[in-house]
Structure formats: structure tokens, C-alpha cells
What does this fold into?
Amino acid sequence: MITNKRSRIVAIAALISAGAIALSGCSSSGANGTSGDDAGSDHPTIRMGYIADFNGASLLAIADELGLWEEHGLDVKESVFTNGPLQITALGTNDLDFGYIGSGAMWLPASGEAQVAMINSLGDADRVIAQPGITSIADLKGKKVAVPEGTSGDMILTMALKREGLTIDDVEKVAMDPATAVSAFASGQVDAAGIWFPLIDTIQGQVPDLEILASNEDFADEVAFTSAIVANPAFTEEHPEATEAVIAVLREAMDYRVENLDEAVSLTAAMLKGDEAAFATDAANAKYLTSAELDSYTEDGTVETWLTSLNDYFVSAGKLQQAEPVSSYYLGDAFVAAGK
It folds into this structure.
């Protein structure tokens, strides 16, 4: 049985723009977020969110290909999102049961708005990039910088500015979705961007001599750039058996990904109908754990250290006044138990 503290639900549904969430295939929900046909069952249709890149979709691509949902008695409906914060919003409005977020959105579980079901990866794909001739973070003062709000790109920009003794107020921050940031940089409408691979590959195709001013590796001694699968607290409380089954699927998929990374790239590219080379670049800029490794890191306190370091960053950056205890939102015990 999974126990947890019900998170506070913040009404930020206005963040969901038209078309940001593909829920047209979902049936109407009851009070517990399940469809009418699923009421009374602890194995409802699982509503999974994802982002259309390797980190955000590879576990789903593997689970779909290997038939893991069916093997664990689950049906799944998958919805694509452009970023993590939108998925947190969908969890809060009970339109989603599980989703994927990058490190830049990890402050939302820490504020009590979602639970972390598992650590998905340790990232090294984020960069602060600039137009040719802009060679330092200090040179960004007063410049236009494109940033997908609340993402790891936002996070690495903030960290890079802080290390230089600057703040976000010292640049002209322009909030954009990732695709718009790519086109704005490529067309010279902005001077710099906080963005990540494989999007940077796309930009470099048009601006081959762009400057890279900061990367995750520059801050490896300060914080772990974790991505995660997140869960709706109302769902995990009401459906503990289904939650365990979902985690069991994810455990098998993460092991397959580590053991068959090239195949995982191919499956993800096929699922998303994208360029396999771009997904390979995405995969090369992250570290992926086996379920046994994550079990060990959970039990020895390493995951708590990772999440605490992120929380300290978010407090210092003004995203959080105070973080919830990691134990209140990381379902580490449930993750480990699902493997036994």
C-alpha cells in the first residue's frame, strides 16, 4: 500500500493552451480520474503524458513495443506535451495520471504539486548558446535571450548568469516554446538561448558557428540534472495496485533501454516519426540507470541528495520559498517494492 500526503492542487489550468494536450481519445472521467468503465477497478486506463524527445518518450516506446502494459494488465492512453509544467498542470486538474518532466520543472513536485515515481535520467543536454561573436555569459547583459519557461534551459541560463554575478533581470528574457526558440535563434531574432540537444543540432544546421557559453557539466559539482516520471497523488492514493503495475512496467523498460540503447533510439524515432540521428544525439547526452541501480541509489540516500540539491537551487533562484521534504513526494519505497 502506498501512503502519501495529498498535495495541494494549484489552479493553473490557464497554462494549458489549445492543442497543448491531446486528450481527444480519453473518455469522460469520474471523481477518481478513471473512465466510467473503469470505476470500481484498481486497473483503470492509465493516462500517460510525454514529451516528443528521447528522454521524454523512450520508456513509452519500449513499453509499447514489448507489450509491457498488456503484460501487467494495463491499458494506456498517451498524450504529447511540449513541456513538463503543462503536464504538472494536467496532473493537478486530474486530466493525467503520470507524466514526464525535465530537471527545470522539478521544483513543482518539490512544491507539493506532484509525486516523483522514478528518476528517468541524469541529463547533460542543456546549453546556453549565443550568436557568433558573443563569447561569454557576461556578454549577454542587455541581450535578448530565448528561454522555454520552467524548463532545464531556463535552469541552466539562471545558473550560468548567477555564476557570472548576474541575474535574469540583467538580460532581456523572451519566453518561448522550444520550437519557437529554435526558429528565433536560427533567424537571428534573439542573441542567445537556454536550450538543449537535439534542438541545438537543428540550430547548428543553420548557425554552424554558434557559441556554447555554458553546459550541465559546468555545474556538476552543484546539482544533478535529473529528469523524472511524475505521478498524480490522487491517483496513487486511490489506485495503489495500478501504481505498482505502472512502476513495474517502467522498471522493465528502463532496464531494456540500458541494455539495448541503439534499439531504444530506433523504437523512439519510429514512435515519434522523427530523425533517428537526432534521437541518438539526445540519448548520448544523458546517463540512464538500470532499475537495480536506482534501487541502490534510493536506498543509500543518493536520490535524496540529488533532489535536495535541486531544491536548494530552486530556493536560491526564487522558484521555491521552501521545498517539501523529499520523502513526501519521492515514491522511492514504492519503486523498490515494485521490483520484489
Q: What stands out?
A: Confidence is low (pLDDT under 50) at residues 1-40.
